[in-house]
Amino acid sequence: MRARARPWRPGFGPGEGSRYISSTPRGARPPPEPIALPQLTSPAFKENAARALADASLQKALSGSRGAFLARRQAAVAALPEFERLREIGRDIKNHTLAHLDFYLEAYAAKVEAAGGTVHWCSTAEDARAAVLEICRRVGARTVTKGKSMISEELGLNEHLEAHGITPVETDLGEYILQLRDEPPSHIIAPAFHLNREDWEASFRASHTDLPRDRVFRERRDILTEARTRLRERFLAADVGITGANFLIAETGSSVIVTNEGNGDLTQTLPRVHIVLASIEKVVPTLEDCCALLRLLARSATGQDFSVYTTFSTGARRAGDLDGPEEYHVVLLDNGRSNMIGTEFQEMLRCIRCGACMNHCPVYGVVGGHAYGWVYPGPMGAVLTPSLVGVDKTGHLPNASTFCGRCEAVCPVKIPLPKMMRHWREREFERHLTPPAARSSLRLWAWFAKRPGAYHAATRMAIGALSLLGRGKGAFRSLPLARGWTKGRDLPAPEPGGTFMARYAKAQRERRV
Amino acid sequence: MSREAILGAIRRGLRRGPLPADQAAMLAARLERHPRHVLPARSRVPRAEQLALFVRNVEKEFGSVERVPDAASVPAAVAEYLAAQNLPARLVRAPHPELDALPWSDRPMLQVEARAARADDAVSVQHAFAAVAETGTLMLPSAPTRPTTLNLLPDTAIVVLRASRVVGAYEEAWDLLRAEQRDPRSGGFMPRNVMLVTGPSRSADIEQTLELGAHGPRRLHVVLIDDDPAALPAAAAAAPDAAAPPGGPAMPAMRDATTRHSTEAAGSAPNEG
């Protein structure tokens, strides 16, 4: 069942992964690693966005889902008077940790090892994929259950495991249906944000072909029960469980996952081996620091006071324990993050992946997550993706913003996202990545901006003409000389009454009188 | 080697080498001290109100709570809950000394096994180490006496909690763990796994609309043993001393309340090797 073409595929080019599926006998040496260039479609943001706007089913899903997150967050934040203070504390904890990241990573790794776990330091996505594969092979894994992890998406891990004869099973409900549909997530905490109930029903019918024809999936409950039953069998059969991590704690060597379903906990409790995928900026010093950030996370993400399961894992099964994994591994991934330290993008590493910025973004709200063309969508993706894969490969992402500033206003750790998108735009301009028409327009604008007399005269004329032309229309769908600009957006027609400067001057004069 | 490459790249970004010894010592001391940040005012209230807040929050998150006067009343409360929910009178419970000591034989119709959970178990009874009022959260650390699967596999999870173990904020629950728990493997206090559980399992992945019972339990029921006189619903009126709001973040009054029973708890929940 593929309702839409797969918008992007992490880790591999289309079809490259499948080349290896049948040809590799288990245990044999793998064929040469495919080049780890993520299959980005970010440069095609404009085309992606246009397609998204014309997709009626996507528009229905987006408009149906958006309001719920906003209202719930607002209520949860209003019920905690300390929330604003906690945002500052959260920002400071993360800044302190990043300024001493080498110390805290080493302290963390020492504690993991003291608790009988293993830390695999991985500079690149290839290193991390190789580390996971080696563990799976050593224990003879056939199936691997997975909790939701954006690092896994960044690695293209599912494709890599499949290519080497190991079956990955996504167990988060949203990720599960996306695996059935062969689609990537479109939101960092609600992966199936872009789907309607009808899409769920159609996918289940197409994939679970042993179901009786008259089985109803009319209610959300029916869908949930079906997924629960199917996945129970997979949880019990899996050899290895892979989860992400919301936090790593230096004080104790713990990894923390925050979930509502319980799938992450089953994933890490039932199989013989637990592998944690975590990037280096997830570390925080102490449990107290973690608690402060946890008070921000669920409220900012889903508008809950606290998620249902917040679980701290420290090493493998202890002597006498009746359950739990026998091995505990942490795959600690850099993949370009250390290069952000000391740059104007360092603050992005404070991100705790709550998704509030995309929930509140007017651009994300109409184009959805897939248009952004890689793992991380929305404002945080528009900043992080160029940092991790290079601004020359991400095209319009830093421009996918109206600079309304809501993302920064709701960010639980106060990341100045609009400022950083502006930094990327500057770098694009400096490196001549901006299209020629835009560059010459900017130069023209700069010429006027440096000459106030000419600027005022020109804007007066332009505004006058536009407001005459646009009278009664409200907005222009298209404008001569600016078709490139109006292709992707409407230009609001100016209200009568002249430019801002003219109206301001008039108001000042009237006040004086 | 990746470890050195990553640490080297971080240090290049920070424009320095490895931290000088005095700075490293300061950071190590902060880890030792683990200072608290702001605690929500809603959790800094008298015991009786704290308990009421805990109950209210569990119910807000779609769990249920029944308060019983003493430990001896637990088996009856469990049996009656199962009957009321139309569930079979069969359960698997944590092999925890406090649960071993309950008079299960008072309810001969109730089939009770003490072990880890299996896929086909319908009902579990877990022992709570502590609970947090600010969000109605149970703290369930793993131990030979407290298997993790009990929190996850059965459709109905029942948790036995003593009122004296309910604290205001998460930080206070971690301090109980720090004080009472020794992990033989790491020498620290963290067991393999600590679950903070707030309500029954749920998902909002289908159209961002909440639906209970995803992969974990559909029902979460707390049997709360009222072993703390200061925390009884009527205590606020009856005992003004106990109801006085404790001052400062160290909360001496509440520490007393939570450690009053800690000898019993420390003896009964070790992570024995």
Task: Provide key terms for this protein.
heterodimer; A: 513 residues; alpha/beta; Rossmann fold; 2 domains; six-stranded parallel sheet; four-stranded mixed sheet; 21 helices; 12 strands; globular; B: 273 residues
Please explain how this structure is put together.
The complex is a heterodimer of chains A (513) and B (273). In chain A, β5 and β6 form a beta hairpin. Chain A has helices spanning 45-53, 56-78, 83-99, 101-114, 125-138, 150-155, 157-163, 173-181, 197-207, 220-237, 263-269, 287-301, 356-359, 362-367, 378-389, 406-410, 417-430, 436-449, 452-469, 483-486, 500-512, and strands at 118-122, 143-146, 167-170, 240-243, 247-249, 254-259, 273-279, 283-284, 309-313, 327-333, 475-476, 491-492. Chain A has 2 domains: 17-333, Rossmann fold; 452-512, no CATH class. Helices cover 47% and strands 10% of the residues of chain A. Chain A is α/β, with parallel strands linked by helices. Chain A contains 21 helices and 12 strands. Chain B has a single domain, classed as NagB/RpiA/CoA transferase-like (Rossmann fold), CATH 3.40.50.10420. Chain B is 33% helix and 19% strand. Chain B has helices spanning 2-14, 21-33, 47-60, 74-84, 97-100, 170-180, 235-238, 240-243, 252-259, 262-268; strands at residues 64-68, 90-93, 111-114, 123-127, 130-132, 137-141, 156-162, 166-167, 193-197, 202-203, 211-212, 219-225. In chain B, the strands form 3 sheets. In chain B, strands 1-12-7-4-2-3 form a 6-stranded parallel beta sheet, sandwiched between helices. A 4-stranded mixed beta sheet of chain B has the order 8-5-6-9. In chain B, strands 10-11 form a two-stranded antiparallel ribbon. In chain B, β2, α5 and β3 form a beta-alpha-beta unit. Chain B starts with a helix and ends in a 5-residue tail after the last helix. The model of chain B is unreliable at 239-273 (pLDDT under 50). Classes of the chains: A alpha/beta (513), B alpha/beta (273). Chains A and B meet through α2, α3, α4, α8 and α10 of A and α1, α2, α6, β9 and β10 of B.
